[in-house]
UniProtKB/TrEMBL annotation:
PANTHER family: HISTIDINOL-PHOSPHATE AMINOTRANSFERASE (PTHR43643:SF6), HISTIDINOL-PHOSPHATE AMINOTRANSFERASE 2 (PTHR43643). InterPro entries: Aminotrans_II_pyridoxalP_BS (IPR001917), Aminotransferase_I/II_large (IPR004839), HisP_aminotrans (IPR005861), HistidinolP_aminotransfase (IPR050106), PyrdxlP-dep_Trfase (IPR015424), PyrdxlP-dep_Trfase_major (IPR015421), PyrdxlP-dep_Trfase_small (IPR015422). Its EC number is 2.6.1.9. Pathway: Amino-acid biosynthesis; L-histidine biosynthesis; L-histidine from 5-phospho-alpha-D-ribose 1-diphosphate: step 7/9. It comes from Demequina muriae. The modification N6-(pyridoxal phosphate)lysine is found at K229. Pfam families: Aminotran_1_2 (PF00155). Homodimer. GO terms for molecular function: histidinol-phosphate transaminase activity. This is Histidinol-phosphate aminotransferase. Residues 25-354 form the Aminotransferase class I/classII large domain. Belongs to the class-II pyridoxal-phosphate-dependent aminotransferase family. Histidinol-phosphate aminotransferase subfamily. The keyword Cell division does not apply. It catalyses: L-histidinol phosphate + 2-oxoglutarate = 3-(imidazol-4-yl)-2-oxopropyl phosphate + L-glutamate.
Amino acid sequence: MTLPLRPELIGLEPYGAPQLDVTARLNVNENPYAPPPSVVDAIAQAVRKAAEGLNRYPDRDFTALRADLAHYLEVESNVDFVEVRNIWAANGSNEVMLHLHQAFGGPGRRVLSFAPTYSMYPEYARDTVTDYVTLPRRDDFTLDIAAAQAAIREMGPSLVLVASPNNPTGTALSLDDVHGLMAAADDVEGGCVVVIDEAYAEFRRAGVPSAATIIPEHQNLAVSRTMSKAFALAGGRLGYLVAHEPVIDALRVVRLPYHLSAVTQATARAALAHHRELQAQVDEIRAERDDTVAWLTDQGYTVAETDANFALFGPFEDRERVFEGLLERGVLIRVTGPEGWLRVSIGTPQEMALFRSALLEVTA
Ligand code: PMP
C-alpha cells in the first residue's frame, strides 16, 4: 500500500536523542535533580484536586496559570509590565514554537535563525511549510549583528528565531544585540516577529539580563521560556511566552481547544508556587557548570562561553569514538554542534565526577 505521505517527510526519522538507562544521563540538558519532596507533595495534592473535575474540559484560557507565570517573571527577571494578556503557554516550549510558526510562518514565508542552534528549529518550519534559512554564527558562536541585519532586510523573514542562551553552544545574546535585530525586523515589509528562545535563561550568569526586560520597547519581540529545565519539570511539559497582546492573540487562534490539560495546569502552578526552593538547585547547577568549564579548560579543551546548564567542548579528532567510550563507562553525552565538538549537560557533582574520570580514561 502506498501512503500519501508528504514528499518532504519520506524517509525521515522522528526527532529525539537516545533514552538509555545509564549512570549519568547528560545528553538532553535535563535538570539532574528530581523535584524535592515538598514540591512532589504539592504537585500530588494539586493533581488530586484537579482529578475531581476531570469530567469537565480544563480552563481553556488557563488564566490562573498565566497570572502565576506573570508573577514568576516579575520575580525572576525583573519584568513588571507583564499581565495575563501578555502570557501564552503550551505543552513545552516546543509547542509554543509550533504555535508561533502556525501563526506567523506558512507557505511562501521564511524563518531566519543562526547556526549552529537547536535542531528542532528546522522541524517547526518543515511542519508548517515555512522556509528555514540560517546564517552562520561567528567562530565564538556570537551573532554578527551587522550581517544579521543585512540578511533580515534582504530576506524579509516573518520570523526570526534566536536561542539565548543558545543550544548547543550556551551563548547568550546581549540586549544591544536584541535591539540590533529589532531595528532590522522593524524594516521588514509585512512585519517580522523576533522570538528569543530563553529555555535556559535561569542558568545565565549574574549580570546577563533577559530579553523580556525590553519587550515594552518592541511590539514584535517575543520571549519564550520553559519549566523543563530550571523547574526540573521536563516531564510536566510546560513552556510559555511573553509578548505584547496582539502576538498572544494570534497564538490563541491557532492553538487546539483545551490544549493544556487540567493536570498540566495544576502541576505547573504547584511547581511555580515553589520556585524559590527550585532556584537553590539552579544555583548548584550553575556552580557545577562553572567548575566543569574550568576543569575542561585546564585539560586543554576549548569550551564555548556558556550561560546554560551544558557546555560545548572540543576539539576532538574523532568525537564519535569519545562519545562511545564515555557511553561504555555509563556516561551519555551528545554528539552535536560543529564537527569535532561534544556537548555535556551539567549533572550532579557525582555524575560530573564520573564524566571527568571517564573522559580522562577515554582520551588517555
Ligand atoms: N528551546 C531550546 C533551545 C531547547 O534546547 C529546548 C529543549 N531541549 C526547547 C526549546 C524545548 O523544550 P521544552 O519543549 O521541553 O520546553
